[in-house]
Amino acid sequence: MYIVLILAEENVYILAMKDFNILAFNSLEKAISYFEDSYNSNHDRGYEASMSACLNFITYQPSVIKVENIEDIKNNVAAVEPKYIQLSHVSGFIKGITTREEAIELWNSGKKPNLIKKVR
Question: Is the sign of the CA dihedral 7, 78, 85, 40 positive or negative?
Fold first, then answer.
């Protein structure tokens, strides 16, 4: 199982959905394409959506990591006493769950979406 860690405001959060359930994927490829496809489709929608996509991915930086199960998340990623958070700005928001200090190392080692591709 793969989950997404978000680096925002110098903290790392586990990305959650609207109801604060953890967003999880059954493959690395699906997790990466979730971000890459969304980012690129926003550019196709026009200037405002394109600028919002840029601001969101600068502000909320995703990194995909592999976890074994929910116990792995509880024991190694989530804060000992996790809290739900919502961060927002003019272009969007995220919901998440607080993590341990060591989660920055997990974020650093995770796979990052390739949002800007070279055109030849």
Answer: positive
